[in-house]
Amino acid sequence: MAITQLPSTHEGERHMFPTGDIHRPRGFDPSIDVSGLVDMDGGYLDRAIFTDQRLYEQEQARVFATSWLFLGHVEQLQRPGDFFTTYMGEDPVIVTKDKSGRIRAFLNSCRHRGARVLRADYGQTRAFTCTYHGWSYDLEGRLISVPNEAAYPEGGWDRDQWGLLEVAQLDTVLGLIFATWNPQAPTLDEQLGDMKYYMEAFLDRDSEGTTIVGGITKWILKGNWKLAAEQFGTDWYHVNMSHASALMVLSPTGRGPKKEIAETPGRQYSDERGNGTGFPTHPKSRFDAQPVHEYYDYAALAGRLGQARVQGPMTTGHATVFPNFSYLPVNGSIRVWHPKGPDEIEIWAWTVLDKSMPEEVREAQRLYNLRTFGPSGIFEQDDGENWSEIQAISRGWQTNRVPLNYQMGIGSEREDGVYPGSTSTLYSDSAGRRFYRRWAELMNTPAWHETEQS
């Protein structure tokens, strides 16, 4: 695999002032063709995609500015005026419920001098008021108050033109809120496609839906966001090695799982939109907290979801919705990988439960989630160490001359007649290849904001 030479750029050429309509995004001058960095037909990857600052900036404009991104759970907004703040890529965002009960999302940046309008993580309010100069916005994003407004020029000032910038599209699926800046993006249902079938095995077990407990746990790791998103979409391969000590702790004998479970059969789904999930299909491949396991009526769930979903995607699986939303069905963990530069991830994680769960089962699942995949969880520690280790050595000269291998499972993809879409064996890089193929496609395609300005 040939290593692509990244072209140089000049600081003064990278950012241009917006022209014309004040709502038009700033210009973007793409300069890097990533075709030589991603060869998913052959199964090779150049690790420059994890370290190069210019590629990271291009990601913000062509991956995060164009994709559907996870914002939060609908249970975080109970009544009009409730809000929480989050990120879409590195853009800060306010998510709120307006007076009519509609969920909306706005760029968390005052239109006057650009400070964040809201600095709280969550709360309840009647209006959003910037603490810098006092510009105030209602729950629909309209500018409603400007101190000393009479000083603005007569005839040249139109308050209606200076409301908060709202996302182009927002939708919910199975209790989860997603949004995109891209007015040309396909619908959320189209983006998910068959992936929704697999998500339902986790998020549609209860006719009453899901809820969240314990708030949001947040922590920071050294590592590129794609390393985490890729693993959750494709990598069962690391489990027996990386998590050997954790599996010993959780096994009844203390010696780890039996051979037929450690080498479990399973499937891995992937699609051309970059989504991926893998799951064992052995009936004993479950590592639930005991009260949670005893709570479920698997026969009733098979009637609701189908036996294939109960024996497969509902087990100890893993999943990523492209680009940076992931979940683990077995312990109710959902998380988003917020990029904070090419070398750092800020991880936000929630515990999601069936609404019908009694209090003691909810508490058992909350604690189990924290102990396994919380920031100090016995599995999470292993994963974070791996990502940080990869990142720590990825800037070396000789290290960067050697491509990474993503060849496992090439040619094993097929439609098996049991699970929707294209699936591979459980031990496979198939979903990883699809993830990076989609990433490269977006990186090499002019985004909606570029075509609007051409």
TrEMBL record:
Residues 1-22, 255-284 are annotated as: Disordered. Keywords: 2Fe-2S, Aromatic hydrocarbons catabolism, Dioxygenase, Iron, Iron-sulfur, Metal-binding, NAD, Oxidoreductase. Residues 10-22 have a biased composition (Basic and acidic residues). GO terms for molecular function: 2 iron, 2 sulfur cluster binding; 3-phenylpropionate dioxygenase activity; iron ion binding; monooxygenase activity. InterPro entries: ARHD_Rieske_2Fe_2S (IPR015881), RHO_NdoB-like_C (IPR043266), Rieske_2Fe-2S (IPR017941), Rieske_2Fe-2S_sf (IPR036922), Ring_hydroxy_dOase_asu_C_dom (IPR015879), Rng_hydr_dOase-A (IPR001663). Residues 68-153 form the Rieske domain. Pfam families: Rieske (PF00355), Ring_hydroxyl_A (PF00848). Coiled coil: none annotated. It is an enzyme of class 1 (oxidoreductase). Its EC number is 1.14.12.19. Belongs to the bacterial ring-hydroxylating dioxygenase alpha subunit family. This is 3-phenylpropionate/trans-cinnamate dioxygenase alpha subunit. The lineage of its organism: Bacteria, Bacillati, Actinomycetota, Actinomycetes, Micrococcales.
